[in-house]
Amino acid sequence: MAGRIQPGVSYQGVATEYAAADGNGACLFGPAADMMIAAMNELDYQNSQACGAHILVHAANGATVTVLITNECPYPCAPGQLDLSQQAFAKIADPKAGRIPITWQLISPGSSGNISIRYKAGSSQYWCGIQVIGERNPVARLEVSTGSGWQQLPRASYNYFLSASGTGCGKAIRITDIFGEQLTTSAFPVEPDVIQPAQVQFAQH
Fold this sequence. Notes:
CATH superfamily of the largest domain: RlpA-like domain
Order of helices and strands: EEHEEEHEEEEEEEEE
CATH architecture of the largest domain: Beta Barrel
Low-confidence stretches: none
CATH class of the largest domain: Mainly Beta
Number of domains: 2
Structural class: mainly beta
Number of helices: 2
Helix content: under 10%
Oligomer: single chain
Strand content: 35-45%
Radius of gyration: 17 Å
Distance between the termini: 15 Å
Mean pLDDT: 96
């Protein structure tokens, strides 16, 4: 279920750096509390499946940094390339270098709070977008309760799962990570652009 970025696999590429401002990006998580963040190349971003992934980056000099994927790096970013925030890049190389060879892999961090849920601005009982925030492992699937079962929602490139007909909006949510673990939350009220904590988190791998 992992998509392009597989657990336990080391990837080669280059690291570049960009001015990440407040840390918000294509994943629409909002301002970052920690600027150890990065943008994933378009191929590995895979329609936002990389959003929320924790990536350990190794430089040739032995330095490492762990970053959270919050953004997409469009062409000419090449497969395997990570565009690090300036703050993260400075942890592994002289900022003047601008571009360095790296290897990187997906990790499942040891310390993490609980997951939160956010309904997209404009959501209602007739249409809604649902986002998962703070996941330990990347989310592979999100389903909503229909009363008689579960319906999987499609994922948009801006990292929301969409219910075009309103099915499941405001109902219980079932989230599956790339390892196949499923978490079920209670129903959340449809309060657009409000972060609502859930008392669940994926296991560490």
